[in-house]
Amino acid sequence: MLITSNNIPGGGIQLSGGGGGGFWSELLVATPPSITTVAFTALAGTALFAALLYTTSRGRLKSPWSRRKRKHALTPRQWKSLFTSDGKPRDGGVKFLKKVRSGGIDPCIRAEVWPFLLGVYDLNSSTEEREIIRTQKRKEYEKFRRQCRRFLKRINECSKGTSETSCIEDSGSPTKDSDSSSYEDVVSARESLSSEERSPDVEDSDDPSSALLEGDDVSGQATNTDASALNTESSDSDSSEDPEVIQASSSSEGREENDPDVPLKENISPSRTDLHPNQCSGENFATWQRIIRVDAVRANSEWIPYSPSQATVSELRACRAAEAVGLKDYDHLEPCRVFHAARLVAILEAYAVYDPEIGYCQGMSDLLSPIIAVVTEDHEAFWCFVGFMRKARHNFRLDEVGIRRQLNIVSKIIKCKDSHLYRHLEKLQAEDCFFVYRMVVVLFRRELTFEQTICLWEVMWADQAAIRAGIGKSAWSRIRQRAPPTEDLLLYAIAASVLQKRKLIIEKYSSTDEILRECNSMSGQLDVWKLLDDAHNLVVNLHDKIETPF
């Protein structure tokens, strides 16, 4: 329709095209030209304003983690109100997960809430069903610990009669493949990670096993290629332990069948067949056992203020816990750190038996330490760790497939968000983003404080729990203000931390090593909620462009 300003009887405006007439013809004919001009100008201005508003809001959607929008953490009272009379979370846990995503969890209820976030308990389970799960998982845990003790006993017997190396050969130790440069990158990164994780108050020269951290074993990981006959049925004769020493175990037999009395078991972990087709061998366990003990004794004490009950453990109880797992060389540690180290050893050994494809790799103790600081029962802490490792285990494969995939996603995010920064990284041959390797492996554990780490992990776990439960975009009200749940929130946060330093990187850094030093010096300098806020905006705007299948 064409509007012309030709003068016609009545002082109106003539319409041409589109058939003329109708409502608009009558309205315009009856309207003076000056009023019509003002009306159309106003409509155009309104349309322009709406377009600008839409563009602005799309570029900066409100985040649940922004300073203005962030809400309070989930409180004990709110937590109780989220359950029905039979103990089932209301609405399938949607409200619960929204609350955790936007504000985190009150420290006093974390031990109760984490098993739901980490898949130990289903979001539709009742109190009765969770009791069945708890009993079943405790038994599996105890079987794993008995298996660990059998391995340890055999290792000790071998070391008395003959040299340990001849009795238990490290036949599963990794060897260099044809891709020698890739292998050397892995070695270098692992050695760097292990050297940084040492507690500052433990001197390397005092530990005869310290060479394992810097030698050809790299990460203490040994992929089993020769299943051992040592993985026999569990005996109940040695099932009892000191009641004060919390165990950490689970047996290989426990997940082979679908028990009709435990309908939620599949939510805890992948099946044994899918997770690790190879069984744990005595050779591999001996290697993992040595590295686990080194890392456990070196664990830092940052957790102490957040776990008062464990911080005040008696010296007698700490020593008994250490003896139960065969921990030695801990005289320089205070009782609470001895107890913490003993718990690390128990659970990490049990996990190595549970998942022999991964076994133990340096950095895993960093992920477990916050869990056992919060969850006081070892069997519950173990299954929480299993849930955590469901995704994180790919960080510890020697072939680095999981790590390289994640680094590739970080690179894609930066490329889509900031082409200028990405071109600078290409110029420095750093577009593979290997400088954030440590952030990926230990999930920001070194760059954030203890409390900040937990806050980030809780939000990340809530996203993963939502996806696991099939809660997608449709369940999030006012989706324009909330990023959809993503399996890779951590990677968006890592990309956000790099983008926060874009100006410094572009203007001052001319080598990958300089960027690496910058990333490794972020410890204590990051605001976790600002980081989540920036990650949110990346998820909203780039989520559909970043493919993250695994």
UniProtKB/TrEMBL annotation:
Domain of life of the native organism: Eukaryota
Domain spans labelled Rab-GAP TBC: 104-464
Entry GO MF terms: GTPase activator activity
Ranges where the record places region Disordered: 162-280
Comp. bias intervals (Polar residues): 220-232, 268-280
Biased composition (Low complexity): 170-192
Compositional bias ranges of the Acidic residues kind: 235-244
Full protein name: Rab-GAP TBC domain-containing protein
